[in-house]
Amino acid sequence: MADLLQQHKAIQGEVRDLRVQVTDVTDEQSRADADVEQVKSRQQRDQSMVDSGAISDPKALERMLGELESLAKRISDLEDVELEVMERLEQLQGSLDAGEAQLVVLEGQIDQAKAALATQQAELKTEFTQVQGERAQLASAIPEDLMALYERIREHKGGVAAAALRRKECLGCGLVLNTAELAMVASAPADDVLRCEECSRILVRTSESGL
To answer: What is the CB-side half-sphere exposure of residue 70 using CA atoms within 13 A?
Structure first.
């Protein structure tokens, strides 16, 4: 969930920047289009005057023809600029479309992750309630003084107050009992509360203790 949200935030920032760029270049293209149309309009007006024979003075006609030539070059230059702006806009729009598509995919994945998280939370809550009930039932059969000891140890030992003695080793801290210690544990009555000398947890003897 955290990874997906981080990716979404990063791409969202990129998309926001691309939208600004697309808007700027769209405005630039509009200005370029307007420049081309303005010069073309002037070219058409001057060409119409030449074609209609409205200019009788040879020098004036020569100037007009020279101006038409300059206008044609100006239009060519402006159209090159217009084409370059269109290509940039096309690239930016493609990147923007790809980024927005990525956001849609990520948002779907985030929704799926949220649904999975909600399902797991519900399952854990049900399991937690069940385990709490089982624990309460078991705790009711334990003597009060032993239960009080257990709770004190649990508070100071990260929630784990009892550890199995397995193959001569305390599974709470990893201490391996020596022969004398094992002999003492083996000889202790079954209802004695034994403590690990290293971590102070209650030692639980099992068939795998190695006694």
So the answer is: 8
166, amino acid identity = R
Same domain, 62 and 15: yes
Are 17 and 40 contained in the same domain? yes
Total domains in the chain come to: 2
Helix residue ranges, H only, the chain: 2-52, 58-139, 144-156, 179-187
**All residues at 6 or more sequence positions from 67 whose CB lies less than 8 Å from its CB, including other chains:** 46
Whether 193 is in a domain gets the answer: yes
- Report pTM: 0.57
- The reply to whether 88 and 54 lie within a common domain is yes
The two structure tokens encoding residue 28: 């630039």
Determine what percent of the chain is predicted with pLDDT higher than 90. Answer: 83
The whole-angstrom separation of Cα 138 and Cα 193 is: 17
| Residue ranges making up the domain that contains 170 | 144-205
Tell me what the mean pLDDT of segment 137-166 comes to.
93
